[in-house]
Design goal:
The protein is of the alpha/beta class and 453 residues long. The protein is built from 15 helices and 15 strands. The protein has two domains: 123 residues, Urease, subunit C, domain 1 (Roll); 304 residues, Metal-dependent hydrolases (TIM Barrel, Alpha-Beta Barrel), CATH 3.20.20. The strands form two sheets. Strands 5-6-7-8-9-10-11-12 form an eight-stranded parallel sheet. A seven-stranded mixed sheet has the order 3-2-1-4-13-14-15, with no helix packed on it. The longest helix is centred in the first third of the chain and has 17 residues. The structure holds zinc ion.
Length: 453
């Protein structure tokens, strides 16, 4: 058993001082506010982890200064897009400079370089307090479109990278069959294409879950998956994710082909429900919002990517009021910082509506923790409570950004940045310690250098 005395922690009941938590087999076994420390526990300072990442203590307590919050869920990731950061803004950085660079990276990756890039990217995520990632994985095959000897070698590389980085992964194996409605895949898109919905489903059967890895499914979009294959993907078990109405052109093409909005098409094919996450949900009709709300679908917003690509601002609050559940993702990894994503949801609404006060810090933290974890198939993660997975994310409350901000939910959402994280525990294991950032930076540099070499 391990014990942590948290100087300050965000519990389901609110922020509390001096919280003693005990952890056994990766799960919280007790959570006590203001315990009688002297009577029961001997303080040992911050514990030194052993070489497996476990705090080296027995019958003693690790004292954790700062504000500790539950583990964050990054519900929408394309790991290889991390190689694009800073490189797609050339000239003035149009949508086309972005897409050209994205396809260039997709064309170059090998199982080895993809593994190294994903490992470094997932370590960056861990360093920013992310304890689960939803990987929307669509790069499946060799550059000429032929399957590898192991047709899931790239998916397995992602699962292994997450394991080594120390976070949980939900591999959302993505069906991608068309360049656009009625258009065959071309160029690098052949790496994404399984040929049919049934062939996609047969390949995905070869993936197995692990203690840190769940398998889910994704429909890339209504552009990339023909109508008759949508139901095949939706019929799989586990979390189901789909890019939805990110840009107006997608809505126009869908209406022209089917006479339905993308939301209406997904509804008609049985793809909307409580395990569905619609990603972006930017350009919606009133009927779309009501439909997604009635389905209780998760709405995964990725504000830093949506602003980078010039997508627009989706109706986050209206979706919430209709019954949808907000989650967050860093998507293209132009930024990996869920603190920035949380506050961007509120700040973007302010710009769009010319009014303040749509989302509270508490609600945004819930989106980034319990709701996000549940959307990825980890309903037993996201709060510091008995029986939950032991994830602990600790923020420095005296940094340049956080000092004097009240050390509460508002510090986390409206002041903190990813660089304020000092320690991360996932499933009871210490996976990030203060000072690890420098080494992770070098690893990213090396991995991205190899991709572009
Ligand atoms: Zn995406």
């Amino acid at each position: 058993m391990t014990a942590y005395l948290l100087e300050r922690a965000l519990l389901p009941s609110g922020v509390a001082d001096d919280v003693l938590v005990t952890v056994d087999a990766g799960v919280f076994t007790s959570v006590q506010e203001s315990p009688d420390i002297r009577g029961n526990w001997r303080l040992s300072g911050v514990a030194t982890p052993d070489n497996r990442g476990n705090p080296r203590i027995s019958g003693e307590t690790c004292s954790v200064p700062g504000l500790t919050i539950p583990g964050l869920a990054n519900c929408h990731s394309h790991a290889f897009h991390r190689a694009l950061r800073g490189r797609t803004q050339r000239e003035r950085g149009t949508f086309w400079t972005w897409r050209e660079q994205m396809y260039a990276v997709a064309a170059r990756l090998t199982p080895d370089t993809y593994f190294e890039l994903a490992l470094a990217t997932y370590r960056e995520m861990v360093a920013t307090g992310i304890t689960s990632v939803g990987e929307f994985h669509y790069l499946h095959h060799q550059p000429d479109g032929q399957p590898y000897d192991d047709p899931n070698v790239l998916g397995r590389a992602l699962i292994e990278a997450a394991k080594l980085a120390g976070l949980r992964i939900t591999l959302l194996d993505t069906c991608y069959l068309a360049a656009g409605i009625g258009q065959p895949p071309e160029g690098v898109q052949r790496r994404f294409d399984d040929g049919s919905g049934d062939a996609w489903a047969a390949r995905v059967q070869g993936l197995t879950e692990q203690p840190h890895a769940r398998i889910g499914s994704a429909i890339h979009s209504v552009r990339a998956v023909p109508r008759d294959a949508i139901a095949t993907v939706a019929a799989q078990r586990g979390p189901l994710h789909v890019h939805l109405s990110e840009q107006r052109a997608e809505n126009d093409q869908c209406l022209a082909a089917y006479g339905l909005t993308p939301t209406e098409l997904l509804e008609a094919e049985g793809a909307l429900g409580e395990r569905t996450s619609v990603v972006h949900a930017t350009h919606l009709t009133d009927t779309d919002i009501a439909t997604l709300g009635a389905a209780r679908a998760f709405a995964c917003f990725c504000p830093t990517t949506e602003r980078d690509l010039g997508d627009g601002v989706g109706p986050s609050r209206r979706l919430h009021e209709a019954g949808s559940r907000l989650t967050l993702g860093s998507d293209s990894h132009a930024v990996i910082d869920l603190f920035e994503e949380m506050r961007a949801v509120e700040l973007d609404e302010r710009l769009a509506t010319e009014q303040r006060g749509h989302w509270s810090a508490r609600e945004l933290l819930q989106a980034a923790t319990t709701t996000g974890q549940a959307s990825l198939g980890w309903p037993d993660a996201g709060s510091i409570a008995v029986g939950q997975r032991a994830d602990l994310v600790t923020l420095d409350t005296s940094s340049l950004r956080t000092a004097g901000t009240g050390r509460d939910e508002n510090t986390a959402v409206f002041a903190a940045a990813a660089g304020d994280i000092t320690q991360v525990v996932v499933d009871g294991r210490v996976v990030l310690r203060q000072g690890d950032g420098e080494q992770i930076g070098r690893q990213l540099d090396a991995a991205i250098g190899k991709v572009w070499a």
